[in-house]
Every structure is written in structure tokens, then in C-alpha cells.
Amino acid sequence: MKKFLIYIAKIIVITVLIAFLLDGLYTYIFMHSNNRGKIEKVFNSTAQNYDVVILGSSRANNHFVAQMFEDKGLKTFNYGMSGGHLFEASLMLKLMIERKYKIKNVILEADLNLSNEHQAEGISAKFLPYIHNSKIIKDHFSGEEDFNELYYIPFYRYIKYDGRIGFREVFFASMNRRTNALDNLGYYPLEKHKNGNMKNNIVNLNPLKHNKYYEEIKNICKTNNINFISVMTPMCENTKGMNYFDKVKKAYPEIHNYENVVIEDKYFSSCGHMNDAGSKIFTARILKDFFQ
């Protein structure tokens, strides 16, 4: 029995050591990668100067044509993240400030994402390789239910989110293989699809009266003398429950409502996302209204 217990103890010790070693190896690779995605780009960067930084979900990523800002002489990058929520947008801005970024204007897409304060696990997972190397990231995740497991159990976060930060991603990062996430200054253009879903129903969607992460972004901008521009972006005309945008305007009067600037289906890839042609019309309007 004694030999058996010693044998089990050895297995446990070896397993823990392997977990620590793999955790260290994976983290080292992520700490030296900056061309796979927007989070790595910011975390592994030094101080940058921007005239315009764009934040939000896919409705920022696919809607703001960064090159059009550049053509006006405004140094710009679209840091919108498809699938992301305000949880991730707030953390991204915090990291920029931690890295001593100088930013004149932040444009935040704030509409559908105001309805929750949840993290988008598939996106937030990409911050986790750095959780032991950034107090900002640690504190941001500290209120999440699984924080203790993610922070204290070695290699747990890489196993849990293997599809996002697991072996495949580590392998490509170690090979320095680029993705298209950083192309077009972060803007991801969509095409018009014949079978695109041109119907949407947001009748049951309601904005939170006080979205924690929206308020964080607004306060960060105020503290750092950044001009804060929050906007609602277009949806197709067949959307049910469009009074959602009126609810947002009532709860957050400072948010500019642009949901009806582009409405024709020919300018949409799907009901919630404009195609490249629609995005250019929308971006031109934003430039005209805020950057004349």
C-alpha cells in the first residue's frame, strides 16, 4: 500500500511539473507574438500615437473603414473584435493606456452590446495567456466565477480554451504565421451574399441602464483627456424591435444614433452587418460629422 501511495504521489508531482513547464512554454510563445491578432498586437507593443482608435464588436470591426480615416490624415486602427462584448473592449483600452498609448479620439460602437456585461469567452480567452504578466488583466478577470482556476491552476486556461489558445494557436504563433486580423488597419470588409440573413428580431433585447464596461470606457477617456465618441451603427430595415435603439438613446443620451444612416439590403452582408459598400457610406458620414 505504501509503495502504491508513493507511486501515486510521484505521478501527481510529475503531472504538476509538466503543467508548470507547459504553462511557461505556452506563455513565453504568446509573450513573443504580435502578428496573430489585435490583443497580442497591443499587449506586446510599446507606446503608440493614434488620432483615432475604434473599439467594439463585429459591428465595429466590419463597419469602420480605417483607411478612410487615414486618407484624411488621421492615424487610425480598428480594434473592433468580432464576437466581442464591452468586457473585452474595456480591457483592450486599459491595456493601451497601460502601454502609454497617446490617443486623441476613441470611437466606440455601443448598441447591441449594451444589453449585457458578460465576457465573450471565445474572445476574452485570448487575454488569458498574459494573466500572470499584467495586473490590468488579472483585475479585470478577478470578478469572474472561474477566476481562481484560471489564475492558480497551471495550464488550466490553455486546456479549457484549447480551441483559442491551445496547441494549434501556439504552434502557429511559434512559426510567426500571420492572420488577416491586422490587415486593412484592423477593418474586416464583408461581401454581399445572396443567402445572407436579411431578417433579425431584437424585440426582447434591452440595454442595461448602467453597463459597467461602457462606463469604464467613458471614464478612462475622461481621465486621459481622450475625446469619446460613442455611436450606434446600422441594421437592415427588416429588423423587428428597432425601438431598441430608442431605448439606448434614452438610457445613454450621449450615444449618437446612426442605425438608419444605411438601410437598403444591398448594403448589407447580413441584417446586422454591412458589406464593404455600406461601411464606406457609413464611415464617410462619421468622418463628415466628427472630423471635418
Residue runs with pLDDT of under 50 for 5 or more positions? none
Instruction: Specify the number of helices.
Output: 14
Number of strands: 9
| Binned strand content | 5-15%
Produce a short descriptive summary.
The protein has 292 residues and is of the alpha/beta class.
Give an overview in words:
- The protein has 14 helices and nine strands.
- The chain has helices at residues 2-31, 38-43, 58-61, 66-70, 86-98, 121-124, 135-141, 147-152, 156-160, 162-165, 167-174, 212-223, 244-251, 276-290; strands spanning 49-55, 76-78, 102-109, 200-201, 227-232, 239-240, 256-257, 268-270, 273-274.
- The strands form three sheets. A five-stranded parallel β-sheet has the order 2-1-3-5-7. Strands 4-6 form a two-stranded parallel ribbon. The protein has a two-stranded antiparallel sheet with strand order 8-9.
- The longest helix has 30 residues, at 2-31.
- It is elongated.
- The model has no long low-confidence stretch (mean pLDDT 94).
